[in-house]
Design goal:
Layout lengths: L2 H32 L40 E9 L2 E10 L4 E11 L3 E14 L4 E2 L5 E2 L3 E15 L4 E16 L3 E9 L6 E13 L1
Antiparallel strand pairs: 1-2, 1-10, 2-3, 3-4, 4-7, 5-6, 7-8, 8-9, 9-10
């Protein structure tokens, strides 16, 4: 092989190595930012990326106008929670006319090895700036977005050793309020934003004016 050809091969090899290093660093960085992304999940679905939507400085919350549901009076919602088609307790949300939300969620369940008990409280607000969009990209401006953040506690009992442990972390509740007493949302728990577990609610919900 000639010296010229050898130099060309070495240059190509260096370029390929550089590209490989950049790709590795890129994916390492994504993992650091988003946490491990599971099949079917997207980085944009991570609620902590939207924390700026939660009003914490006491400023007024922009209130919805038609076609979105208006908050003319306070009301509460109780909804069944599920994960992978298994029941996981109930969530309670209270909406007030100023756009604020407080709520709580809890559940208890067990498998063959452990028993789990979750309790959580959270608060947040509605956000009129976000527009609902389905999986096909169709927008629905009649739905009202809400986002909350709080803390959860998980009590774990291991049956074999009769030992118990307590873990704590962050809970986010996000979702959409629609017309006709409709609501759908996601409960997301995490400890350090490198992983998350989600629970769904909204299939069965009860609205009470207060």
């Amino acid at each position: 092989m000639s010296r010229k050809a050898g130099s060309g091969f070495a240059l190509l090899l260096m370029v390929l190595i550089a590209v490989a290093i950049v790709m590795v660093l890129y994916f390492i960085d994504l993992t650091a930012i988003w946490g491990p992304i599971k099949p079917g999940e997207t980085a944009a679905s991570r609620p902590w990326l939207e924390e700026e939507r939660i009003i914490t400085d006491g400023s007024a919350i922009k209130l919805p106008k038609p076609p979105k549901p208006e908050l003319k009076s306070a009301f509460s919602v109780t909804a069944e929670v599920e994960r992978e088609q298994a029941k996981r307790g109930q969530i309670k949300l209270h909406f007030t006319p100023d756009g604020k939300i407080v709520g709580q969620w809890g559940c208890s369940y067990s498998n063959n090895e452990q028993g789990h008990k979750f309790t959580s409280v959270f608060q947040g607000n509605v956000d009129i700036s976000k527009t609902y969009e389905d999986e096909n990209g169709k927008k629905d401006r009649s739905r009202l977005y809400f986002i909350t953040k709080g803390e959860y506690i998980e009590e774990i009992l291991t049956f074999a050793t009769k030992s118990s442990a307590v873990t704590e972390g962050i809970v986010y509740v996000t979702g959409w309020l629609g017309h006709g007493d409709s609501i759908s949302g996601v409960i997301t728990i995490t400890s350090d934003k490198t992983w998350s577990i989600t629970f769904l609610f909204g299939k069965t919900a009860f609205f009470v004016s207060k």
